[in-house]
């Protein structure tokens, strides 16, 4: 009877020790930064509201569940973003003793608990698209015509426009600014200041459509 009790105690201590080893190298959650253009979008995960952008959230690691972010902002299309996972590099420290009972147990706990899989990337930058209904309500026929002209300009001069943004001015950028401020109560300089303030994000645009959305979302 004493031997049985001792075996149970030792077994419990062993499991506690193994669990400690599993969490020695791997974290239980990951921080993810989320930004949207424009800012102020509501972020939720599995129906639970987390806050508005820009924000940083902590997401608990999980092996089997697929987690999605839902991004909502009035007047914009709702986005659903899949959170990607990869193997945490620190988990490979357990390889040093994987051939032992300790190593096998440690890796097993990491896998089952999700500690081995980290959420990566840790940063999401999301461009929100105006809903068609909002676009129709806010734009007059004249404004719609200028909007189409600006879109064509960005598509035709994508690389040249980015070069102008980098240099702080140029023929193509001036043409876009002129179309943007026409018919609105703002100055060209005000828009140029906004473009320069967000220049790093603008020149990161991979496609004409992405650059156009980012330019159009700038406040003037």
Strand order of the largest sheet: 3-2-5-6
Largest sheet: 4 strands, antiparallel
Bulk shape? elongated
Question: Into how many domains do the coordinates divide?
Answer: 2
Poorly predicted runs: 4-25, 95-107, 109-114, 133-137
- Overall SS class: alpha+beta
Strand content: 15-25%
The counted number of beta strands is 9
- The chain-level mean pLDDT equals 76
Please report the number of helical segments: 9
- Euclidean distance between termini CA atoms: 81 Å
- What percent of the residues sit in helical stretches (DSSP H or I)? 40-55%
Element order: H for helix, E for strand:
HEEEEEEEHEEHHHHHHH
Rg of Cα set? 26 Å
Task: Tell me briefly what this model is.
This protein is 48% helix and 20% strand. With 220 residues, the chain is of the alpha+beta class. The longest helix has 24 residues, at 2-25.
Overview of the molecule:
It contains 9 helices and 9 strands. It starts with a helix and ends with a helix. It has 220 residues and is an alpha+beta fold. 48% of the residues lie in helices and 20% in strands. The strands form 3 sheets. A 4-stranded antiparallel beta sheet has the order 3-2-5-6, with no helix packed on it. The chain folds into 2 domains: 115 residues, no CATH class; 78 residues, no CATH class.
């Amino acid at each position: 009877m004493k031997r049985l009790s001792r075996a149970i105690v030792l077994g419990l201590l062993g499991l506690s020790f193994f669990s400690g080893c599993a969490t020695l190298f791997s974290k239980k959650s990951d921080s993810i930064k989320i930004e949207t253009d424009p800012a102020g979008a509501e972020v939720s995960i599995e129906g639970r509201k987390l806050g508005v952008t820009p924000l940083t959230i902590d997401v608990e690691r999980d092996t089997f569940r697929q987690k999605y972010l839902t991004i909502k902002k009035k007047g914009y299309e709702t986005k659903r973003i899949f959170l990607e996972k990869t193997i945490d590099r620190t988990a490979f420290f357990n390889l040093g003793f994987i051939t032992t009972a300790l190593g096998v147990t440690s890796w097993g706990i990491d896998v089952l608990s999700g500690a081995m899989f980290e959420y990566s990337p840790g940063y999401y930058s999301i461009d929100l698209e105006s809903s068609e209904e909002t676009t129709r309500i806010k734009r007059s026929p004249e404004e719609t015509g200028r909007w189409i002209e600006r879109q064509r300009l960005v598509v035709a001069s994508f690389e040249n426009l980015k070069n102008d943004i980098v240099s702080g001015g140029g023929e193509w950028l001036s043409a876009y600014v002129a179309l943007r401020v026409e018919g609105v109560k703002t100055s060209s300089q005000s828009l140029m200041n906004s473009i320069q303030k967000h220049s790093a994000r603008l020149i990161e645009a991979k496609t004409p459509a992405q650059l156009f959305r980012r330019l159009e979302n700038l406040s003037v």
